[in-house]
Amino acid sequence: MSPEFALAALLGAPLLQALLVLALSRPPGLRDLVHVLGSGAVAALAGYLVHAVSQSASPRIVLANPLPNVELAFSAEPLGTLAAAVVGGLGFLHAIHTSGMVRAIDQKAPARLMAFSALTTAAAMAVMFSANLFSFFVAYQALALAAFPLVAHVGDDEARTSARLFLAMLLGASIALLLPAMIWTYTLSGTLEFQVGGVLAGRIDLLSANALLVLFVLGIAAAAAPPMHRWLTMSFTAPYPALVKVQALAVLPAGGVGLLKVFAYVFGPALIAEETGRQILAAQILLGLCGVIMCAAAVIALSKTDIRERLAYSLWAQALAAIIGGLLAAPAGLFAAALQIVATSCAATTLLMAVGTTAAVTGRNNVADYPGLGRVMPWTFAGFAIACASIIGMPPFSGAWSKLWLITASASTGVIWAAGLVGVAAVLTFAHLGPLAANAFAGRAPTDAFKRPDGASILLVAPVILGAAATLGLLVLADPLASFLSPVWTPR
After folding, report:
1. For residue 112, which of 239, 236, 235, 237 has the smallest C-alpha distance?
2. In this structure, are residues 154 and 107 in contact, taking their beta carbons and an 8 Å threshold?
3. Angle ∠(337,38,25) on CA atoms, nearest 5
4. How many other CB atoms are there within 10 angstroms of residue 138's CB atom?
5. Is the pLDDT of residue 491 over 60?
6. Are 264 and 191 in contact (CB under 8 A)?
7. pLDDT tier at 203, thresholds 50, 70, 90
8. Sign of CA dihedral 248, 254, 259, 263
9. Residue 116 pLDDT exceeds 60
């Protein structure tokens, strides 16, 4: 199998998966099998592409050429390929978990939920493998449209309100801000290609660089930079399988990867002012804003009593940490940001699946109801605790690596205060997640824990355990990942 064929198959497999899930929705067992096997195929193809890219392969497929020097094209480069492999592997676990969830809670329209989950995966993969800004823009629109039904799936007034906000913010920001930024970039450089070293390097004045940076950061609303974050903090009303896809496996990580591609492949050295050798003014302002809001999000999370809403604010803080790493405009910062996206995706997927399992078998969504549940659901809450520790950044868990690199990159670029804000955010994250995990084991076990007499099935527990194992596995991969991602910031 050639890398080009694998790339095309990876982009097309989730589309076929969605069609087959709808066509074979009865019996439920066949539907679930198709969903799991389709997700497994995506994971296998993504793993193959990681191997191919590590061997210096650069597969590229071109679907159209709508403008001079502009192609609708997709290519496998290290940053997008790594993110796709993480999303694909975790997506396989999530597909198994979804099969258990729809049975445990009698989910409304499960085939539709699985189909749009697959379509969202397809769009997220297209975002991650986009070869240029035009392809990214098209894939980004598709991502917003595919994920919209997931947010609206419950169908009540609250879900419809959240879904309308979700679509309005993602599509509205992309059309009003990202599209003009793309056109402006084409005017300045004559190309929209993602290029190591940045297509704008040496071609843009300081004022234009500042304005373009703001347009890109706010235009890619899926990255959740303030004030474009409301879609994330309002999406907690979605059903748990959709929540995992939106917050951990598609929309949020795709937004983060897209923004990192802009930092690395569009701006490059243009993020640094030649006169001072420091970040341009807009980057410094955005750094300060994201750093302060990151701490504020962690504080707000502490006030939320619904576990889903608390996690939404917690993950927003983690997304802002990735943006800070990219804005530092240094190889160490970009690596910290990429590692932050990977670690957060692993931990968030595990955490949300654990919370979904808890809700399915106990009916509990309130933080006050969590003490003692670890005694009756030890495996699920072991995964929960590991994921919490990783998001907090507690050594030796994987989230600690990204926080350490972020602090190191901040210090090495002279932005010491950013390192301080990262540390403060970690302490505040511990405040809203640490006691939650500890009390689950330290509290007295409830006598009426299960609303289902058989407790949690293997389909609900095994993905949580394996997700936690993946989170732990990242402990030994920091050096290999740095080597794999080095071409992102090292022109050949």
Report:
1. 239
2. no
3. 125
4. 18
5. no
6. no
7. confident
8. positive
9. yes
d(CA 221, CA 88): 23
Please state, in angstroms and rounded to a whole number, the distance separating the CA atoms of residues 173 and 302. 29
**What are phi and psi for residue 312, nearest 5 degrees?**
-60, -45
> What is the H or E stretch that residue 70 is in?
strand 70-75
Residue given tokens 């511990």 in the structure block: 430
491: tokens are: 């022109």
Mean pLDDT score across all residues of the chain: 89
Place of tokens 């397809």: 122
What are the tokens at 389?
């520790």
Neighbour count for residue 219 (Cβ, 10 Å):
28
Nearest to 378 by CA among 393, 357, 399, 396: 357
Instruction: Please state the length of the chain.
Output: 492
- With vertex at residue 201, the alpha carbon angle to CA 489 and CA 130, rounded to the nearest 5 degrees, is 60
Nearest in space to 256 (alpha carbons), one of 346, 326, 181: 326
Q: Which of 87-96, 242-251, 364-373, 483-492 has the lowest mean pLDDT?
A: 483-492
d(CA 269, CA 417): 22
Instruction: Give Cβ neighbours of residue 31 (< 8 Å, ≥ 6 apart).
Output: 21, 24, 25, 110, 111, 114
What does R_g of the chain's alpha carbons equal in angstroms?
21
Task: Please check whether residue 87 is in contact with residue 344, taking contact to mean a CB–CB distance below 8 angstroms.
Answer: no
CA distance 293 to 299: 10
Phi, psi of 490 (to 5 degrees): -120, 100
Q: Beta partners for 70?
A: 67
Give the count of beta carbons closer than 10 Å to the beta carbon of residue 175: 13
Q: Scanning the structure block, which residue is given the tokens 């066509």?
A: 23
pLDDT in tens, 50-68: 999 988 888 999 998 887 7
**pLDDT score at 454:** 52
Residues 287, 324: contact at Cβ < 8 Å?
yes
The CA distances from residue 397 to 33, 43, 102, 228, in Å, are 33, 24, 31, 30
Under 8 Å between Cβ of 223 and 84: no
Q: Calculate the CA 98 to chain-centre distance.
A: 18
Residue the block writes with tokens 């085939």: 111
**Cα-flanking dihedrals φ and ψ of residue 64, to 5°?**
-165, 165
d(CA 450, CA 437): 19
Residue 235 has pLDDT above 80, yes or no: yes
- CB count in 10 Å sphere of residue 254: 32
So what's the pLDDT on residue 8? 94
